[in-house]
Design goal:
heterodimer; A: about 260 residues; mainly alpha; 11 helices; globular; B: about 300 residues; alpha/beta; 6-stranded mixed sheet; elongated
Chain lengths: ~260, ~300
């Protein structure tokens, strides 16, 4: 006998695995993540000899190889958005809500399934990018090995970051109910916002900038070498998780309040 | 199992969609929910199904709000708008995940696919389905939990003649098994063939809640079409019995104020030949227009 929560979670898994677009999105995520790692590490490897002393001082080969995954997060975000907005655009949300009328189990089930898939795929992308990136750097520039202090943590947290991005995306989808709107919001938060913040005066920009999800991922969770002004990996993970939980909670509240 | 709608009201912004509606849907019969487009039928159904929250009043299923039902798909089956399906998912997967949400045995998925005739195409993605196939899948969803209550919004929309006949037989069969069936339509003629009981609304308000026969009788007076080689003698006898002749044309006539059995008896007593005797009651359309326009007049609309 399945409880409402169990039933909703199994059903969400069936929903997401039964769509080909899920597998295309995940393949795109892993593929682009590893490809970007290969390209950026290849560029660094080719130009290491001419790099400045400052560049060499702050060199974080782990972070460099994970940069592709941090870019490919957009693909994961699309998966998180579509998990809910496709229900609104096709009308299946009404069937889902009739099956689970209290609605909170529906949100929780979606969060668990989307979060789990994004975590698994995020880790595949992160580890794949790391090993491919280090292999390309090796012999041309200083590279990292998984056993060095902080390296395993950064690679694992990179995958965790992907899962949290997917949850933020799911929450935005719950709030906005439209695929295009929610994806625009994601692009705004992850790609446009850092540029806007950079226009603010000096210290203020840095203070705000380090709070953005993009910085939490790139400079804290996925970093081995500490970046000035950035949060520690632990603090960044807690902050990012808090964002995800808060946005999904608001989305759930609105799902419960509004007619579907 | 029954549906009880008690004084529900729903507004969207400043427009009132449903205004103080009260009615019941009893088990064992098909209750037709009739009204022109925009009368508030879909809104009422959405409130019964817990999708929309009424501003006032309650809609309950066997005394409980839809949201309070444990595993609701096992109690209530619903078909709302057609094609509320993800085009990229197969019919079987669609039914499988709904079954999982309410802990419905997997065998029911195959059973309903068989019942609606979609078993051979169940693995195909829904985007390749015709309108009629989509509608059949919608019916399969409604039947999935073997529910005692069915709520179907315009299920015959877009179906071909064979599909319409199929749904009609299916719904009568389900009601015959003691289930409560609420069926909305703006196709009035279709309703007269399917529904035992009618709940008629217009502009969000109740206009009639009665048996289909009674609703028809409330419309314009009945008339009877006769054809007879002895028409002049027949009409004289009919007049003596209090019947009125509304029209004659050769050997046919239309008689009002007498029923066809009464006319048959008169003809037999007088020893006259009747070659045709056919009651032609008002169509549901005529009755509907007449009754709704009366209400509109009273309301000063």
């Amino acid at each position: 006998m399945l409880t409402t929560y169990q039933g909703a979670a199994v059903a969400e898994w069936t929903k997401i695995r039964s769509l080909r677009s899920t597998w295309w999105t995940l393949a795109a995520m892993v593929g682009s993540s590893i490809a970007l790692a290969a390209i950026t590490c290849g560029v660094v490897a080719a130009h290491w000899a001419t790099a400045t002393a400052a560049d060499k001082a702050g060199w974080d080969p782990t972070n460099q190889s994970l940069s592709g995954t941090l870019t490919a997060q957009i693909a994961i975000a699309v998966l998180g958005v579509l998990a809910i907005t496709a229900e609104f655009s096709t009308g299946t949300i009404r069937a889902s809500v009739m099956a689970t009328p209290h609605r909170t189990p529906l949100t929780v089930a979606k969060a668990v399934v989307v979060g789990f898939i994004a975590l698994v795929v995020g880790e595949i992308g992160a580890f794949g990018s790391f090993f491919v990136g280090q292999a390309i750097l090796s012999g041309h520039a200083p590279s990292a090995s998984i056993g060095q202090p902080g390296v395993l943590r950064a690679v694992v947290l990179c995958g965790v970051y992907c899962a949290l991005v997917a949850l933020v995306a799911l929450g935005l989808g719950l709030i906005l109910r439209h695929t295009a709107g929610a994806i625009s919001a994601i692009v705004g938060i992850f790609l446009v916002l850092p540029g806007v913040i950079a226009l603010l005066p000096g210290k203020l920009a840095a203070d705000i900038n380090r709070l953005t999800p993009e910085q939490l991922g790139a400079n804290s969770m996925g970093a081995v070498v500490h970046v000035p002004d950035a949060f520690s990996a632990l603090t960044a993970t807690v902050l990012m998780a808090a964002y995800a939980v808060a946005i999904v909670a608001v989305g759930n509240l609105l799902l419960r309040r509004r007619d579907v | 199992m029954d549906i009880a709608v008690n004084d529900i009201r729903k507004t969207y912004g400043r427009s009132v969609a449903v205004d103080g509606l009260t009615f019941r849907v009893e088990p064992g019969r098909v209750t037709g929910f009739l009204g022109p487009n925009g009368a508030g039928k879909s809104t009422t159904m959405r409130m019964i199904l817990g999708l929309d929250r009424p501003d006032r009043g309650t809609a309950t299923i066997n005394g409980r709000r839809y949201a309070d039902l444990d595993h609701p798909l096992r109690h209530v089956g619903a078909l709302l708008e057609a094609r509320a399906l993800h085009p990229g998912r197969s019919a079987r997967d669609h039914l499988v995940y709904l079954a999982q949400t309410n802990d419905i045995p997997r065998q029911r998925v195959d059973a309903v696919l068989e019942q609606v005739g979609l078993a051979p195409v169940a693995a195909k993605r829904v985007k390749s389905y015709s309108l009629g196939m989509g509608q059949r899948l919608g019916i399969a969803v409604a039947l999935l939990g073997d529910p005692d209550v069915l709520v179907l919004d315009e299920p015959v929309n877009g179906l071909d003649v064979e599909g319409v006949r199929w749904i009609r037989g299916l719904l009568k069969g389900l009601a015959g098994q003691g289930r409560a069936v609420l069926l909305s339509s703006h196709l009035l003629g279709e309703m007269s063939m399917t529904a035992d009981h009618l709940v008629v609304i217009a502009k969000g308000r109740l206009i009639a809640d009665c048996s289909t026969d009674e609703f028809l009788a409330r419309g314009a007076g009945r008339s009877v079409h006769v054809k007879s080689p002895d028409l002049a003698q027949l009409l004289a006898a009919v007049r003596r019995a209090g019947g009125e002749i509304s029209s004659t044309d050769g050997d046919v006539a239309t008689i009002t104020s007498l029923s066809s059995p009464e006319i048959g008896v008169i003809a037999a007593k007088e020893g006259l030949v009747l070659s045709e005797l056919m009651p032609s009651g008002p169509s549901l359309e005529e009755a509907f227009v007449e009754i709704t326009s009366d209400v509109a007049m009273e309301a000063g609309v």
